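User: what does the whole thing look like in 3D?
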Amino acid sequence: MFGLTKSTVEKVLLYIICTIIIIVVVFPLYWLIITSLKYDIDSYIYPPQFFPVNITFKNYIDILFLAQEGNLVKYFLNSLIITISTIFLSLLFGSMAAYSLSKNYLSIMFRRMMLAFVLVIRIFPPITTAIPYYIILSKFGLIDTHIGLIISYVAFSLPFTIWLMIGFFQSLPAEIEKAATIDGCNFWQRFIKITIPLSLPGLAVTAIFGFLYSWNEFMLASILTSENAKTLPVVIAGFISDKYLFWGKMTALGVLMTIPVIIFSSFAQRNIVRGLTFGAVKE
Amino acid sequence: MANLVLKNITKNFGKIVAVNNFNFKVNDDEFITLVGPSGCGKSTTLNIIAGLEDPTEGEIYIDNIFSNNISPSKRDIAMVFQSYALYPHMRVRENIGFGLKIRRFDKKEIRKRVTETADFLGIGNLLDRKPAELSGGQRQRVALGRAIVRKPKLFLLDEPLSNLDAKLRTRMRADLKILFSDLKGTVVYVTHDQLEAMTLSDRMVVVKDGVIQQIGSPDEIYEHPSNLFVAEFVGSPSMNFVDVKIENGVIYSDGIEMALTKQLLDKIATYGYKKEYILGIRPENIKISKSESKIRFEVEVVENAGAEYIVHLKNGKIRISLISEKDISPKRGESLNLQFDVNKTHLFDIDTKVTIY
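Assistant: Here's the predicted 3D structure for the full assembly of 640 residues, as structure tokens:
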């Protein structure tokens, strides 16, 4: 039809579908950036301005330098400390748990039971545990503290970490560990000198997911913190008042929040691709 | 160097008996091979010797020391795996020296031993490479280097040549023979390749379905197999088998009529007469006769093996093969007179498959 071959039509359709997908994925980020560069009044204009006419950096100046917005550096550091601590502790305990559950050191019945137990934790939506968490942490005096939030985040990250790392550990050739045993390694030496270095892709993938979860988590942070341990998602929510929505400042802070994610992700990108497929095929 | 004794070693995986009552001794400085088809229990036995698996029953003695409860790292053994199991994140230098480092050897001593071992194996120029940058043969040498650098009492090799191509395998076989002659170590080698077992070993242990079939030198196993399985497994091309009857001292089958020697007749008499037997004869013990004979077969196909022909023949349902020199070139469909070397003929019990003669 119209002198077009089947492969040409297929190519055109493919490009159209890819373009639609790219627009759907990239548009929210684009809208976030341009809204952060608009005056608030321009955010309410109808029809919406897809290409801003009056660009301003006022929103960024307001949130970074003006005192009434609070100490943004402090909240940024809170988010960073809590996120990095969560990733570190999840990987530390999760990888050790995954290692013991992926090998034949324990009976198969016990391993299955432990894996099911770990999975059950993820079945509960975080909202169902928010009140019990609040009560428990307040008894220990951990409300509005870094440690309180870290404990909560680690509890929710661990199941995912364990399940992901089990797959990676099981994909490592068993003979490498046997060789390490013959070479004289004990359990810990095998784990630290052989298994962990070979599992760096898996650890990188798990770290990325852990970063995204902890960095963006809002619900537990809003319930368990007030001022000292307040994180950036909670600060963003503070721009929603009953009288007004500070779109400009919300989106500006949103843009600033994506920068560490982009840096971290591009740093680990090579390991992500390798890590996502590494455990998929058993040798 | 050390000796190794396995006493009544059995290994069960649930209801499956992978290793059934193994008993054998490996002497100091001996090269012994466990050979058999895949899944017969030879790798499991090696893992038990290494301490990587516990036997269900039985005892292991390494250098006269009861070793069942000694961990693999303390048995003073070295192992080379089928996949080489090199550490991908370490360079060759670190791979070879890893066992010494874990055992807290002095850094100077490690460097010295690693360099000596690498030079000995001809991989001195590869020390700074990672395993991914090496060929199959080079990786195998690194795996060997990792084993020999520690100067252990016992070497365990689990099919180390099976991942190599045929040409490289032939070369490495010779290299391994020279290596372990020079090294003077006690070696337990596992393979499914009967040619590897024949060429490398001082003695062979032939295994089938977890049961030892025969232990002996390559010549003993080749010339005097204890049963049909051993006779068929060892030798290439493999032994020919024909169902035969014996009447009045003569073997009869389709296309075969052959008088037996007195020695063979006495053996049959001692064993007890049966209606039928299985005749076994190796291809190299069948000759093409220029004169008329009572063994006549038709040529089915001729394989050109370079230095010789492998001629496949048939008579009715019976199929045999022989090795012919190149000066005789049989044609397909040609009827040939054959001669069997009676002294190299074997006879097996048709029911138990045990060797009678």
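In plain terms: Chain B touches chain A at residues 47, 50, 52, 72-73, 77-79, 81-83, 85-89, 98-99, 102-103, 146 (CB under 8 Å). The domain at 240-349 of chain B is CATH 2.40.50.140 (OB fold (Dihydrolipoamide Acetyltransferase, E2P)).
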